[in-house]
Amino acid sequence: MASEFSALLRRLRHDAGLTQEGLAERAGVGVRTIRGLETGERADPRVTTVRLLADALGLAPEHREALLAAAVHRTGHGDEKDETTGHVGQVTERPGSALQEILAGVGEQLAQAVAARWQREEEHRQVHDPYPLPVRWLPAPEELTDHWANIRALPAGVRHGPLDLSGRLDDIAGVYRRIPSGRLVVLGRPGSGKTVLAVRFVLDHLASRARADAVPVIFSIGSWDPTALTFRDWLTRQLTRDHPGLAAPGPAGPSLAAALVDSGRVLPVLDGFDEIADGLRRPALEALNATTLPLLLTSRPAEYAAAVAETDVLTSAAAVNLSDLTLSDLADYLPRTTRKAGGGDPARTAWDPVLSELRERPHSRAGADLATVLTTPLMVALARAVYSDTPGHDPVSLLDTRRFAGPGELEEHLLDNFVATVYRPRPEYRPGGSARREVDPERARYWLGYLAHHLTRLDTPNLEWWRLGSGLRRSTRTLVTALMVCLATGLVDCAVGTLFDSLGFQLADGLTVGVVAGLMFGIAYWFMVAAGNTAVAPSGVRMKVSGRTGGTARRAVPRLLLGLLCGLVFGFGYGFVRGVHNGVIHHTGLPAALYHGLCDGTVYGLAFSLAAGPSLGLLSLLETPLDIRSAISPVSLLRTNCRTVVTQLLVWGPTFGVLVGLGADVVVRLLPALLGPMVWGTTASVKLGLISGLGGALGYGLSLTAWGQWVVLSRIWLPLTGRLPWSVVGFLEDAYERGVLRQAGAVYQFRHARLQDHLARTYRLPGAARQPERRG
To answer: Pfam families per the record (predicted)?
Structure first.
């Protein structure tokens, strides 16, 4: 029966008078896809592709149903759920396909990594302590929802009605599966529980996921620029960032990540549509409408409605609106988050007077203001952290109208006290007695404020360790990098050189080497990184002697050319300065000194050029993609990148040093006929090779690797200027453990967008950017 679909598609195309190329252009699919489906080479027709073909052919309802039925029959799942009414996230494929088996295995690994990550996130959010806050929703206004015929994926002429999409948090996966199009928009005001719902959807969907189903993955869509990257390309980049192993060449695409996205094995859960820049929301919605991928999108209502007004609703998408918490919800939840009060009534808690005010005097100023605030899970969670989890804090103070003039002041109070609460000294964590060290709340607020301000400047919710220095001016980054390279290479030259020459000579030589190296690497950093206002991304590879892929040879050629050029510039600059310096010391006169400078510049330029090019090319030939589970967290990626850089330098440094030493010896032997007699010996080659290997490795590592830039800017410069603590990793991990940050793959994010906005705004207040005084 495998030829039934192929023959039917071919006949319908001929009846429509279309060539394969014409049908491909009209349907928006590849010619190779259509050719493979008609010849039987492709045994996995996706339902979305079949629907696109049916639309392009302009089929009548009966012919459309016949084509869809043949597609389902062809996949060998005719006895399972009818794919014409199931949503497109359920991909049916022929089990025997080697390609699909490979992708299914990769998808299983991805599903395990995603499940482990978000289970940890739920634990850190205390979602189940004592039980999840009720998150409910109702259908969104009709103007924000597509036609129900499109949502139901019905052919023309079929009667339809709206779906019942109301539900609660634990129903979200089931509600989504009732949507045939597989597209759902979740709307909710700030703090209403959109992210919690997205996490629960991912975990519930994974719990009941079949091997062939798409893997739900949460993406922070606020970092997407639809004018610069297509949606699929952006998904691929995000996947390879969080799972570097997916950068490996795929069986049906440039990478495993691209193959997963293109084959429909990734179900995008797009969190934070409202975080996209104002001018990019319309092109973002248009780009999403240009795809047929199933997805779940979260957004604040106003921002989504504004984008809809400018273009259209999300095609084939249903929409729901998250509801506010009720007084009954608060009465059930808050008393169970705190200890029982002493006295005659063992069930009485500190929240009882507050709940009584809300229940008995709902129209009083205090009751109305607090009721307005405690309608979102975010504010209830903050109130719990500040009052239930903190001894000595009485929630009755929330009813003080002289202290809090309105709901805005109450919200600012809860946000402002959240940091002080989570960083309060705890008796169980005494200095020197446990892993968690004490952090002064004011200093923690200042550092977190800088991080929030940094994200605001970059217009992204993703706190990427390799971009922490990107908030600095480009000139500052370049100067700091050049200075660090200058100091590092100069010190290496002085320390190693004293084994061969006098200290006085090496001080002058170290100064020369440091200045030239700093200048050269500074210029390279400016043109390769700073000029584009970018950051050096973490290496997605590791070193491997065997099992290399063919793509490494293509990467080796540009690096070879870059090495030749940089080596020539550095070598000529160093040699010229050294030659002129020696001429001045020996009082040879300016013309002779310049001549010696040109001669030495030529020798050193050729030696360093012929060494740097092959050394950088060798690095490319030894690189291979990282394992898929190598980046389970930002710290994991940092450590992995550190090991990668160290291994690279352990290969590059000795190779570069040996080639410089041998190259200098060869050049000195070949050039006397052109430049005259030269004084050179084996000791000079050994010294030059040793210093060059160590200094060159340090210069390259500090300026042109993500880990090196992390060390220069985030571990030295930002702590030196007081904007971050000296132990940045420890601080970020501690903030994650305390519930201020969350992990999203290889990046951190503030757990609450409102908290990020509040900290950034507080940091920018007049006088707030001054670092707090140290205590003790």
So the answer is: HTH_31, NACHT
DSSP-assigned letters across all residues of 117-165: HHHHHHHHTTTTSSSPPP-EEEEPPGGGS--HHHHTTPPTT--------
> Per the domain annotation, does 737 fall within a domain?
no
By residue range, what is the domain housing residue 514? 468-715
- 366 and 301 together in one domain: no
Decide: helix, strand or coil at residue 500: coil
- Residue that finishes a domain, picked among 419, 438, 457: 419
Q: Which of the four pLDDT bands, split at 50, 70 and 90, describes residue 88?
A: very low
| Structural domain includes residue 775 | no
The DSSP symbol for 253 reads: B
Give the chain's length.
776
- What torsion, rounded to 10 degrees, do the Cα atoms 210, 212, 213, 219 define? 120
Of 430 and 140, which is predicted with more confidence? 140
298 shares its domain with 354: no
| Statement to judge: residues 176 and 201 lie in one domain | yes
Closest of 543, 517, 537 to residue 706, by C-alpha: 537
Q: pLDDT tens, 623-643?
A: 665 555 455 678 878 888 888
Q: What span, in angstroms and rounded, lies between the C-alpha atoms of 696 and 517?
A: 8
212-262 residue pLDDT tens: 889 999 999 988 989 988 999 999 999 988 887 788 777 666 788 888 998
Sequence-distant (6+) residues with CB within 8 A of 291 are 231, 232
Same structural domain for residues 192 and 57? no
**Mean pLDDT value of segment 492-509:** 83
Whole-model pTM above 0.70? yes
**Dihedral sign of CA atoms 519, 520, 524, 527 in order:** positive
Q: Domain check: are 29 and 115 in the same one? A: no
Mean pLDDT of 390-413: 87
d(CA 200, CA 544): 39
The pair of three-digit structure tokens given for residue 169, joined into one six-digit string: 């948090």
> Cα separation of 649 and 696, whole Å?
9
Give the percent of the chain with pLDDT over 70.
83
Task: Give how many domains the chain has, as a whole number.
Answer: 4
Within a domain: 495: yes
- Distances in Å between the alpha carbon of 533 and those of 400, 475, 484, 703? 49, 10, 20, 15
Q: Residues 132, 61: one domain?
A: no
Whether cis (ω within 30° of 0) applies to the bond prior to 677 is no
- The whole-number pLDDT of residue 776 equals 34
Is the Cβ–Cβ distance between 193 and 165 less than 8 Å?
no
Same domain, yes or no: 109 and 128: yes
| Dist. CA 761–CA 755, nearest whole Å | 10
> Are the beta carbons of 660 and 668 closer than 8 angstroms?
no
Taking the C-alpha atoms of residue 133 and residue 196, their distance in angstroms, rounded to an integer, is: 10
What 3-state DSSP class applies to 509?
helix
Same domain, 304 and 403: no
Gap between the Cα atoms of 64 and 607, Å rounded: 70
